[in-house]
């Protein structure tokens, strides 16, 4: 790992050497040669124009469209290890790794081989297969405090189903979620703060009904008192408190001990289920995810991203007593034609097997992330750029603001003009960061220290 195994690709780092003509796209070679680090996005832009004719906004998930940073998105042709190769032949160091799943790097051989072998035997049956039990057994053995797991096709589905299970189990309707935490795009989660300070949420997307919104209560991350007030005002009505145990969708935000242990205590006292959305943190912060890292037991845990090894998998898990409420064992309905799909299971099984056999990868990732943190912080400090950097394990985010970033409001204070300059500046130098200030980077273990050094150097060049 750590090296791109396809040597001819290295040449493509420099688009000039990859073609015999005087022109690359519509730009004359000599112009390119005169511009150090010049990179081309002509073909990506053309593909985006074409995509917009047939796909709303040209993308199948909004963040990909670069709305927050401006410019056209980059179309990927292929990827290997830590590097993306785009449709224009540029090589990019990737800090997203498909938003988390590819923790060991792109096209990781054990995962790819498992999928190829499985595909030859048929891609879907709608009948039970042994590999579902294999992945379930492995996941249950790695994660503390869960007995059973149900596989779905996305993190959205996992969170949506977990909330239904929590409601069915407790016989209560309301949930508390935190501003800035993302749990997928199902209606109950597309809620923003209402008008009053401690009141119901309101829809933050057309199409979400007031009826749905009234059952989701909004609190602020790291604000235990606010949660207690909501629980008091809605006593006996709250089924679940759902959160990202380490948040990654408003930058990387670390829970205070007071907050996270306080939530556990409150939930136990009030008969509320504590739902950990570990779609991002699961199998990333360690074998046992945030539960293990923080030393805290949740009641239902949701997974996605890494558990599918790059194929569409989500899952939710809990103690047997809670999971027994799920159909067909119990009355809470949940289903999926492609759930437990053999290709997806084979990718997930290969990925978790790798992580289970080489748990030192988590420490290696955390070290790399710390190295990156220190390197970037040093440069920004030397250059006098106001910033905050948050990091936990292999999640990290850089915020261009003065005050510590502890919740959605403090994250939103970041200077977006500086962020745009930073994002595009890095991109020009071949470093692909999340195209939004609200996203965490996800390091993958294929990243070498040379890649990290290049990244830190790139920051220096921008400011
Ligand atoms: C990505 C993400 C989701 C949604 O997962 P999808 O597979 O995109 O539906 C849910 N929760 C968290 C914390 C996530 O990061």
From TrEMBL:
Catalytic reactions on record: (S)-4-amino-5-oxopentanoate = 5-aminolevulinate
Xref: Pfam families: Aminotran_3 (PF00202)
Gene3D superfamilies in the record: Aspartate Aminotransferase, domain 1 (3.90.1150.10), Type I PLP-dependent aspartate aminotransferase-like (Major domain) (3.40.640.10)
Protein name: Glutamate-1-semialdehyde 2,1-aminomutase
Cell compartment(s), UniProt: Cytoplasm
Subunit structure: Homodimer.
GO molecular function, one term: pyridoxal phosphate binding
Organism from which the protein derives: Flagellimonas flava
Chain intervals for the UniProt region annotation (Disordered): 1-24
Modification sites for N6-(pyridoxal phosphate)lysine: 305
Lineage per the UniProt record: Bacteria, Pseudomonadati, Bacteroidota, Flavobacteriia, Flavobacteriales
Gene Ontology biological process: protoporphyrinogen IX biosynthetic process
The family this protein is said to belong to: Belongs to the class-III pyridoxal-phosphate-dependent aminotransferase family. HemL subfamily.
Keywords, sorted A to Z: Cytoplasm, Isomerase, Porphyrin biosynthesis, Pyridoxal phosphate
Pathway annotation from the record: Porphyrin-containing compound metabolism; protoporphyrin-IX biosynthesis; 5-aminolevulinate from L-glutamyl-tRNA(Glu): step 2/2
Cofactor: pyridoxal 5'-phosphate
HAMAP family: HemL_aminotrans_3 (MF_00375)
Assigned GO CC terms: cytoplasm
The protein's Enzyme Commission number: 5.4.3.8
PROSITE patterns in UniProt: AA_TRANSFER_CLASS_3 (PS00600)
